[in-house]
Design goal:
Blueprint (H helix, E strand, L loop, with lengths): L5 E6 L4 H4 L1 H15 L3 E6 H4 L3 H13 L2 E7 L7 H12 L9 E7 L9 H14 L2 E8 L8 H16 L6 H7 L6 H18 L10 H7 L1
Parallel strand pairs: 1-2, 1-3, 3-4, 4-5
Amino acid sequence: MNRAKQAVLLVGSPKGLARSTSSRRAAVLLDALQDRGWAVSKLHIHAALRSQEDTDVLLAAAASADLVILACPLYVDSLPAPVIRVLELLHAARTRDGEETRFLTLMNCGFPEASHNDTALAICRLFARAMGWTWAGGIALGGTGMGVSGAAWHKVVRLTVDALERGEAVPDEAVALAARPPTKIWLYMLAGNLMWRRQAKKNKVRQRLGACPYAEREHS
């Protein structure tokens, strides 16, 4: 009997497996793979780094997987520090033998334009090459992952899983569909600004929203 293909999801959001956009979006992909007969598992990167034992579990899971999926938010055009640390540990522990591993990345950012994720996805592609893994592609989401509707996201997942089953990378159609901006960009920015003003009022710093402390220090 053939061994079921194994997929491991590494979630790199500090919000964890239950609350994060990264985990919720990737979970749909993981469920679709499971429906196709894949053996799936998911691990929270931040939690895994809290002990050597948990770190070893994560490294072993990635080493034995046919497909490693990284899902995380964008931090300053790059990856969160704990994610970078895990990639370093994976590279240090890499082996040259064994079956082929594929690497897929799902990035989301708070900017309405998904293109802000491009640099982080390029980092992940180079990481896959350094690992000797096959780059299965990257999916970028804007607007903190809220840009694509549930129905559209399920189509993205279906197209992606179909490609993975054929041994191919994420198709361009899926990438383009996922990258659609959330509603009208001006409306998204308006809502975002209202949110910041409400939070500033709640914390009694609304009058300081226009403060430029570093500029003031420079000219003082």
